[in-house]
Amino acid sequence: MTSQPIADLSADDLAALLEEQRKAYEELKGRGLKLDLTRGKPSAEQLDLSDELLTLPRGTRDASGTDVRNYGGLSGLQELREMFAELLWVEPEQVVAGGNSSLTMMRDCLVYLMLFGGVDSERPWNREEKVRFVCPVPGYDRHFTLLESLGIEMVTVPFNEDGPDVAAVKALVAEDASIKGMWVVPTYANPTGATTSQEVAAELAGMPTAAPDFKIFWDNAYALHHLTEEEAKSADILTLAAAAGHPHRPIMFASTSKITFAGAGVAFLAASTKTVAWYLDHLGKGSIGPDKINHLRHVQFFGSAQGVRDHMVRHRQIIAPKFEEVDRVLTERLGGLDIATWNKPQGGYFVNLDVLPGTASRVVELAREAGVALTPAGSSFPYKRDPENTNIRLAPTMPPLPEVTEAMEAVATCVLLAAAEKLAA
Ligand code: PLP
Predict the structure, then answer these.
(1) Residues 41, 113 within the same domain
(2) What domain range includes position 196?
(3) pLDDT tens, 220-229?
């Protein structure tokens, strides 16, 4: 096996490499693997960390004496709002604690904007001729399918190491009033792991926009999900935007889906107090209050904001070795060959693998035929179109460590074979 860039090989050496990789792949197929690297979900071992929740809450009253079994309290339990306000660096009155899904909160906000307009809108968005969103790529697939379902068009910009490409964003939003908003996953982004810097956040918060009601959907899903002891701190987007004279621009989202139970956690929204009132006003037409028993359970389980941070260290101890393993196998098998690059994320749930342009879908196909499920190529792009056919998202948290090793060895073989096929063609 070579360790020099494959593109530098002579035609004969390349033909030999192709033959070697075909054999390795046939051998791989013969193993009858059944592995899955598609799911950005916590493993059972991680979920077990929160099993005490199943024995809570103790009692049925919150700190103010309200009976949590009853209706009411649309903005969520005050003590839980305070706890997460501290963790998200916002004020408690800027926070709503809701149901179990922040994605649902994002969907609701978009629907309210479309149907009614925001606090700073001239009219509902659906009365505009066209509504468009800036989407840093690669990004979170569900953000894109959500926009598509509402008929909101997507315009892409690169997602750099320090966040969305600000110059590209500014150029788009300055002139075009149909561009009403953008996504940002500011901390350990899905899938690149990039964290948006203070400087980039400040520019996004303050940039002139043609639309007076431009929104930044600041999806801080991985705010606390560190993989090393060096913890990235998310930019304080609400303060930055308020200071720049655009207090209603950002709406922040977060949840405990990957802190406690992915199916039974608590989701949060944070924004200007006026935007919070706007959100609750619309929400209140369809809800008399959230699941406050679950809120109380979470308050008692964590005890404090520090309790949440301590809990995240226990997650890190379980999943960091899996991320190390992905990097180890890729480095050993593909290092120096110039056919793939990948990130070593400092947090979050994904590894972003860029293979030889034009081969991502082939790699996914080869892996599937060998029994390893990978996220379909193109998934991290609007309309599932990766213009370079290069990007693959790997999610190593869910399988046990030995399966991560086996799956990554298989992925490396598929990346090599697809590259050799392409270069020899
Ligand atoms: N936002 C991002 C960036 C995600 O990666 C995910 C889940 O993978 C979610 C939101 C989903 O959040 P929730 O479980 O709170 O709906």
Answers:
(1) no
(2) 70-304
(3) 999 999 999 9
